[in-house]
Amino acid sequence: MTDFERIFHPQRLAIVGVSADSRSIGFGNGILVACRAMGFAGEILPVNPRGGTFAGQEIYRSVEDIPGDIDFAAIAVPAESVPDALEACRRKGAAGAEVVTAGFAELGTPEGIALEQRVKEVAARGIRVVGPNCFGIYCPRSGLTLLPGPDLSRESGPVAFLSQSGGMSIDLAHTGKWMGIRFSKVVSFGNGADLRETELLRYLGDDPETGVVAMYVEGVEDGDAFFEAARSVGRRKPVVVYKGGLSEAGRRAVVGHTASMGGSRAIWSGVLRQVNAVQVGDLAEIAQACLAFALLPARTYRGISMIGGGGALGVAAGDAAEANGISIPLLAPELQDRISAVLPKPGSSAGNPIDVANPFFPPEGLRRVLQLAAEDPRVELQVVTSLLYHYKSQAAAIGRSLAEVAPFRELAEAAGDAAEATGKPVIVILPSLKRGGDDLDVLDVLARARQAFLDRGVPVFDDIADALRAVGHLNAYYGRRDG
Amino acid sequence: MTDFERIFHPQRLAIVGVSADSRSIGFGNGILVACRAMGFAGEILPVNPRGGTFAGQEIYRSVEDIPGDIDFAAIAVPAESVPDALEACRRKGAAGAEVVTAGFAELGTPEGIALEQRVKEVAARGIRVVGPNCFGIYCPRSGLTLLPGPDLSRESGPVAFLSQSGGMSIDLAHTGKWMGIRFSKVVSFGNGADLRETELLRYLGDDPETGVVAMYVEGVEDGDAFFEAARSVGRRKPVVVYKGGLSEAGRRAVVGHTASMGGSRAIWSGVLRQVNAVQVGDLAEIAQACLAFALLPARTYRGISMIGGGGALGVAAGDAAEANGISIPLLAPELQDRISAVLPKPGSSAGNPIDVANPFFPPEGLRRVLQLAAEDPRVELQVVTSLLYHYKSQAAAIGRSLAEVAPFRELAEAAGDAAEATGKPVIVILPSLKRGGDDLDVLDVLARARQAFLDRGVPVFDDIADALRAVGHLNAYYGRRDG
Asked: pTM for this one?
């Protein structure tokens, strides 16, 4: 039995390949610094045959020199030394190790393939290996983190991510940090010489800390086993899959990247649908889907209200909703009249999309409109677009700063309160339309506004098409699972 | 004959509806302030029956009181006073006027429709009207600007934008500012009581300052005339069209927004293709297409090189290229060897996609790789992805700031030089993956980096799929036009 508890939450962590020499600082040093910055709670045990000290810690000359057992190891020595280092960790009782070093089967050379075979042989003797050619494990609860990763979020949450690509793992972890996605575990498994997609997916399916499993897959070792695992896990929690390398050039890149074999687009799409996995097409779409699955109650949302200032927003929302099979029901005349009474004139429209006429519609008005629109039983989710950047010229006109003038805290309170009071979730669209060198105030306010909404449990997206595509994924998943 | 020169570059501009009373400051005051901020070079002549002064300027009590003729007027009085104000401007010799006031046909009421009819009657007597229910004209060369718009770019450029929606016009103008899109003319024409899509499109087709015409259309007055104009203009310059309201809810929003009738998705897509217009689906796609048309030489780009640090970037690029009918040709072994000699080992790959192994590949290496990859005649465009945010942890480790450490100026020089030396354009992808409240340094560096690339004529996109979709639009347009 694999002791995943000791792998994800090690008490004693060896880092093999920490240099005392400031001229040869490498990945091992980076891992040590990053785990400390993350508040890793256990013991960190650095190793290097040349000994010395780094960051105030004495470096053991060998794994054998470490007193007592270890739980897990991060291995960052040159490729040819990896099998021996791994074997030493196995003898020290480690349940597992991550090998961040590259230069194995992904090279496509006989030497690289032979070296990876030796890693597999050590693993088969009783130590689980993550990698090689990977960025390792990020687990906020224990303080393990991806390479280079010193500033990832320390908060845990329901989203797990399995990635063949190290770059994709660190990019999603950073993206998730500001988007409000919190992770249970992220595993960059690289070449996947031992632990890889199917076994990790099964583990996360049973992991009570994980509510959503997202994956970046370049190729799978055993298609039948993988799809069966996806089907089984998918009955309990959503499985979001980005299969990279479905084009010719993409497949070529896959082989050089993680030594995997790709597959055809039609087969992947068909089978993922059959097993009720959620197929997405890029990093941004993974993130948006994870945000929606993590923050919205687990159900379908077939009808929405769309609230924004400016008629084209409603037009775009209508088009995006239709593209995702979501309806924006026309409200009853009586309800329209009550909403209309709250809206500025002229230029507003209460039919749904609800056009609040301009970007300065006050938070109390928004609160009231959300309460009213929720009275229509066909409205299951409410979508609010706010173009906060427009407050910048208003603020300038009265000699104040954007942060003082833009009522984002009050808007977040209104949205959060309305969602609670009505039981109908609210999502917010905050387009980022000013991003020049003279617009850092706008970017700052957008970041603060996003956080204010997230603090009230309200997910935020950059644009309406992204948001409704994510809601479409919920509808497809929960519709098939529960429908 | 309509005197468009006097409309877009007025010497004498009346602003009807400028209040001296600080408690009733409205759109007219906003227009005055904004035009001054834009450096409007002509005379500004404010009007209000109550007289007084605003911002140091005396307010005329009526249009008739203005000494001499006027060229153009901005009208921001209550809807019921608009026809008379317009008639007064006509008598003063104005070639045209923009009516920003709302409350006309878009209300759907008999009163609103009748009021708009009166506007049409005045226009028919000899003054061209932009609006009502619009944000007016932005023309950087003359200093006219959209509502509220005081901080739009003052630089002119080749992109014109016609928009039925005011919100869309101001949003694209702001987006274009930081993306590097420079405008010849932007016209928000709202309800289009007089001047509207077809006539403006024909004018811009002949306008030597305009090289690309983009449009946001909710409904057209005369489909045959519009499509014929699009076909005719499209023979000379690209016409990019976002038709909003192709869904049921979208159509409903259109009617309440600008009193237009929509149309069916199939008909629009089919006819736009027939006339070789470039159909796009949202604001971001308009902007991306305009950037590519404005900055890339006018031709097709069927084959590209893709250069980035991290294998998944190449995988994603391959998939995005295929989706847009673009090839990433495998380079010849001899050329691969020469490229490989410049790349770090292990983890790099020279086949194309070219994986430079990590985000810290130095600018001189990039310069060399671009020069080498350009030797393959199938490579017609080069795409470089740079994940600058990774320099943040590197900078922190050595106690310096991201702006000091990230070599964005040198990267921009390398890309610009290589494009010039090889005659093969370069585009750059700068994903914005850190955007939290503690990442303003990253956002600042991204804004500066974007500007550095733009200063060298290198367009920048947020992500590879967006960029290749835009290149796909060039291929479709120039392929049909010239192919």
From this structure: 0.95
Those residues whose C-beta lies under 8 Å from the C-beta of residue B318, and which sit 6 or more positions away, are A245, A247, A248, A249, A250, A251, A252, A253, B306, B328, B353
B137 domain-assigned: no
Q: Please report, for chain A, how many H helices and E strands are present, in that order.
A: 18, 18
Nearest CA in chain A to B173: A433
Claim to verify: residue B253 and residue B369 sit in the same structural domain: no
CATH of the domain at B196: 3.40.50.261
Cβ-Cβ contacts under 8 Å for A320 (sequence gap 6 or more): A464, A465, A468, A469, B282
What pLDDT, on a 0 to 100 scale, did the predictor assign at position B22? 76
Of B107, B394, B447, the CB nearest to A436: B447
The tokens describing A177, both together, are: 């940090």
Same domain, B289 and B222: yes
ipTM of the complex: 0.93
Residue B439 sits in the same domain as residue B463: yes
**B140 within domain boundaries:** no
DSSP string over B27-67: HHHHHHHHHHHTT--SEEEEE-TT--EETTEEPBSSGGGSS
Note whether A257 contacts B431, CB cutoff 8 Å. no
DSSP letters spanning B283-333: HHHHHHHHHHHHHS-SS---BEEEEESSHHHHHHHHHHHHHTT-B-PPPPH
Other beta carbons within 10 angstroms of residue A324's beta carbon come to: 16
* Domain limit, last residue, from A259, A277, A295: A295
CA–CA dist A61, A45 (Å, integer): 11
Of B151, B319, B345, the CB nearest to A244: B319
CATH number, domain with residue A15: 3.40.50.720
Residue A311: in which H helix or E strand, if any?
Answer: helix A311-323
- Give the count of domains, chain A: 3
Å between A201 CA and nearest CA of chain B? 20
d(CA A395, CA A445): 13
Least confident segment among A226-240, A257-271, B385-399, B455-469: A257-271
Residues A39 and A87 placed together within one structural domain of the fold? yes
Q: Are residues A118 and A22 in the same domain?
A: yes
Is B360 found in the same domain as B456?
yes
Work out the burial of residue A179: count CB atoms within 10 Å of its CB; fewer than 13 is exposed, 13-18 middle, 19 or more buried: buried
Closest residue by Cα to residue A179 from A480, A440, A430: A430
For A423-432, what is each residue's pLDDT tens digit?
Answer: 999 999 999 9
Query: Residue A98 pLDDT > 70, yes or no?
Result: yes
Do B330 and B435 lie in one domain? The reply is yes
Grade residue A260 by pLDDT with cuts at 50, 70 and 90.
low
At B294, the amino acid letter reads: A
The answer to whether residue A399 neighbours chain B at the CB level (below 8 Å) is no
Quote the domain boundaries for residue B160: 155-295
Looking at the fold, whether B116 and B163 belong to one and the same domain comes out as: no
